[in-house]
Amino acid sequence: MRPLTRRQLLALGAVGAGATAAGGAGLWLTTGNGPGYTGGKDLAEPQVLASRDGVLELDLTAAPARVRVGEREASVQAFNGSLPGPTLRARAGDTIRVTMRNGLQAPTNLHVHGLHVSPQGNSDNPFVSIDPGGSFDYEFALPGDHPPGTYWYHPHRHGHVAGQVAAGLYGAIVVEDSDPVPVTRDRVLVVSDLSLDASGNLAEVDQMQQMMGREGELVLVNGQLRPQLRAAPGERERWRLINACPSRYLRLGLEGQGVRLLSRDLGRLPIPEDVTEVVLAPGNRIELLVETRQGASALTAAPVDRGNMNGMMGGAMRGANVPGGDPVELLTLAVSGSADADPGPVPEGRPLRDLRNEPVIAARTLDFAMGMNGNMGRGMGNGQGARMAFTINGREFDPERLDESVAAGTVEEWILTNSSPMDHPIHLHVWPMQIVQDGDRDVTEPKWQDVVNVPARSKVKVRVAFDDFAGRTVIHCHILDHEDQGMMATVQAR
Ligand code: C2O
Ligand code: CU
Ligand code: CU
């Protein structure tokens, strides 16, 4: 993160604000997230819309909005005027109907990230385009055995995805458990980032930032800057964390509290795992069980080295590293008062499906690459000449082209290779992936995710069961700037 100038700090309302007593002043003076900002407002959660009798019906309007970020007014884009949009809660077997309206100046659409639903027609179809002023009626029918978990929605109109998500268009989806985990509190925590200019508008993003994947200077939780959570000792909370940042990876830690991992992307782990640190690539979700202990703790996001562009562009880009810097404080948790009653044991989840025990019908390799396109001699920075190409198997995205054709109902093994010097978090719609080999290391336990990070100059082997649906969808890098620049391919099951 670039250090802020005094002028920028003034614009943030951070200079001279002083520290307040809320939650222990010292906590707020650490690095990151607008130095000196006192924070400390209680965490707010977006409006919750829950299904009834198997149906959830709602209107979602994507439009410009004025919101408060920290101590300033910001001009963003939001669903139904709030950052994030409403949280949708449904159950396996339910139908979600959304009338999506486009109040933006650019085309958009809606994607339900991670849901196992049909990619066709007016379901989770990434090829839909809604013009400014237009609307579209979506219907998502969740199968009766849909895994519980934390999912999310965001626009997916190719060429506009990074800009619209960065501007504030995202919201949470929860699919309820069939056997509930006893907790004293269930929280949805949507992490996003954005950069504002001095007048509170979204900062311009240059070509270099798009190549790296833009990272916003302010990291928000439910649209708030460093909110505060309160609890009593001995409680068990369930935190549903979503990385809705367009490019930022989050290395999360919560010192001083008991933390167990309950879920990664989809479903739940049979037995929650003790963790001290978890990395979320863009698009990933985790659910944590937080067993509260007396004192004040901060949820922090430490920088992640996701590679750089050194050597990619001759001399032009040397030293241009992906933004890093100090850990960012996302929120604080103040635990005080008298201990609560024991919430009781966590029931064991169902054993996870293991595709290593199932016959593989086909194998294929997808290579994610970056390379120069055009004439380097013209130089960078003038918007002409050389351009970085983001490709899968040597090709940039073409919605009309069929890239990977699979037989519905079969299991395939895919080797995701990354020949570039940056990490790419790879996301397949509709069908989750089981990671079987990470680099040269076999993954012994069944590990399921819908966004799988493929480190720079490395590879990951996954298996996918193309169950339940036919139709055409996409696989892409979830650094949304890379997706918009072409790192996406079509996948058709038939
Ligand atoms: Cu969250 Cu295709 O994306
Ligand atoms: Cu998705
Ligand atoms: Cu990428």
Architecture overview:
The structure is a single chain. With 494 residues, this protein is mostly beta strands. Helices cover 5% and strands 40% of the residues. It contains four helices and 33 strands. It has helices spanning 6-11, 161-167, 207-212, 480-484, and strands spanning 48-50, 55-69, 72-79, 87-90, 95-102, 111-113, 135-141, 149-154, 171-175, 185-194, 218-221, 224-225, 228-231, 236-243, 250-254, 258-264, 273-274, 278-280, 285-291, 295-302, 328-335, 362-373, 387-392, 404-406, 411-418, 424-428, 433-438, 441-442, 448-449, 451-454, 458-465, 471-477, 488-493. The strands form six sheets. A seven-stranded mixed beta sheet has the order 12-11-10-14-19-16-17, with no helix packed on it. Strand 11 and strand 12 form a beta hairpin. The N and C termini lie far apart (46 Å).
Q: Brief overview, please?
A:
With 494 residues, this protein is mostly beta strands. It has helices at residues 6-11, 161-167, 207-212, 480-484; strands at 48-50, 55-69, 72-79, 87-90, 95-102, 111-113, 135-141, 149-154, 171-175, 185-194, 218-221, 224-225, 228-231, 236-243, 250-254, 258-264, 273-274, 278-280, 285-291, 295-302, 328-335, 362-373, 387-392, 404-406, 411-418, 424-428, 433-438, 441-442, 448-449, 451-454, 458-465, 471-477, 488-493. 45% of the residues are buried.
